Amino acid sequence: MIEIQRAGLCDLVVDLGRPGRGALGVPAGGAADPAALAAANRLVGNDAAAAGLEITLSGPVMRFPAGGVAALTGARFAVTRPSGAAVAWNETLVIAAGETLSIGQARDGCRCWLALRGGLAVPQVMGSRGTFLPAGFGGHLGRALQAGDALPFAPGAREVRLLRAHPPSGEPDAPLRVVAGPQAGLFDDAGLAAFFSRPYRVDPASDRRGLRLTGPAVIHARVEMASQGVLPGAIQVPPDGQPIILGWDGPVTGGYPVIAGVISADLPRLAQLRPGDAVRFVTIEREAARALAAAHWDIEEQG
Amino acid sequence: MQSSDEKSLPRVKPKSGQPSLPAAWRWVSERGLRVASGDATLATYSELVSRNLPEIEDVIPADGSLLLVLRQGAALSAELYAALAVPLAAAPTTRGSLHEIAVEYGGPAGPDLSALAEAAGMLAHAYIDSHAAMEYTVAFLGFQPGFPYLRGLPEALHAPRRASPRVRVVAGSVAIGGAYCGIYPAAGPGGWQIIGRTTSVLFDPAREAPALLIPGDRVRFVPL
Question: Which CATH superfamily is domain B98-223 in?
Fold first, then answer.
């Protein structure tokens, strides 16, 4: 069990989501970087799909009354434990009974994932233990964690091994790769030039539903558009010309023109964008994007 | 097979490496295949879902189009092409369940009704009769879990969205947005014109069937 003594900005129970329910208006959701959650789970001997915590910008203080086995992946946060021992990222951590883990501010990036041996034993709702905050279901009571919450773990299925994970290498400052969207043809050369030539900033009003960008307005021919299906990474341009990249908990249909879509391989980078960060886009052919493998994390014994 | 919005769009310049894709196909990132399906949207949706194709993670019906969400890295199979090539007239059309939804029209439950009736040149009771006389079909769900886009609204009742959306719309609000009628499953911000309210629970994630209405279902409104 973990007891939350002080909640972070938005601590959410997440797993790999509930895909396949778009026709009901329900997005797949799931960890913003599923490979990072899966790697944290493997470090504690869980199945990749076990429920853990997604921590955003500022984390919780949590007590482990009976101890536990944990692992952190994703963005580095300031974190302390009473013994003063360092808390390593991407490693199996053994937490003593009564120990407290204090997760502070993100040092770089935006989100990290905490896996706990056995996985968080919250009820499954529509096939997932993950929180869907916009409609208030799943996870722990459909909401972000609060001080006083106590979350049990399921029993661990495998023996504890001390492991270390190696995240895939990436270029955090490279432009986000996009495939031209279904309404790219609505944008004239000036609109496309604005979109591709100059950086946008991530607006503070961004969350798991969407990243709002501010920058050069992308002008397009105004048409009455029929609602169409969309998915995370789709970049909508509302009439004010300020693009919105749909996130993991975004709507499944939308009525704004979609200029482009961030490719699946770059969605984990969206998870690490924080308010004020600069974003640029570059196009890639769809077939090339499809051939890019999902991020691979190597995991080995700690030596 | 083309919807009206598709016809009005300039064509995207052809991409290399995709020589054989039908002109009405578009991509939303590399794994969302948007297919214009016009009036055959629900029939095509049923056809695709019934085939249970392994490369498809989800199929999202919308207004005259379908979004096929492919599993990451999946290629398009011959069977998918075949499913999309089924002659649409021959595609099975099953009639969905009929739901009767009791509505309290006007007053605090439907704050926009009197203005809409006036704009339509109708008395409030005639407006209500007109709205309740129709049988509606659930075209698709979106915006919120369980929010139905209902087709079948009489043309005289079509109305634009509000210039400024409400910060909070009450759950169960029956509303009009353009040519569609919708019902808000949960409280939240909303820009549609509200004409009434129902106590029916449109979405409950704990139910075996979380959404009361699914694409293809039919709806009749019963004035209280």
Answer: Cyclophilin-like (2.40.100.10)
Among B28, B67, B72, the strongest candidate for a mutation testing the A interface, having the largest count of A CBs within 10 A, is: B28
| A141 interfacial to chain B (CB closer than 8 Å) | no
A positions 257-276 inside 8 Å of B (CB)? 258, 261-264
Q: Which residues contact B162 (CB under 8 A, 6 or more apart)?
A: B112, B191, B192, B193
pLDDT digits (tens, 9 = 90+) for A169-181: 888 789 999 999 9
**What domains can be seen in chain A, in order of their start residue?**
2-166 (no CATH), 176-291 (2.40.100.10)
Rounded to whole angstroms, how far apart are CA atoms A42 and A70? 10
In order along chain B (224 residues), what is the average pLDDT of each group of 10 residues? 36 41 84 93 91 95 96 91 73 79 98 97 97 96 95 96 88 96 94 96 96 96 97
B-chain CB neighbours of A122 within 8 Å are: none
Interface of B with A in 48-107 (CB under 8 A): 57-67, 69, 72-75
> Which ipTM did the prediction report?
0.95
Looking at the structure, give the CATH architecture of the domain made up of residues B4-90: 2-Layer Sandwich (3.30)
Smallest Cβ–Cβ distance between B145 and the set A25, A227, A288 belongs to A25
Contact A227 B69 (CB under 8 A): no
Query: Which tokens belong to B77?
Result: 């199979």
Residue A171's SS3 state is coil
The rounded distance, in Å, linking the Cα atoms of A67 and A223 is: 59
* Domain residue spans of chain B: 4-90, 98-223
Number of Cβ within 10 Å of residue A204's Cβ equals: 11
Contact A230 B146 (CB under 8 A): no
Tell me if A22 and B186 make a contact (CB, 8 A cut-off). Answer: no
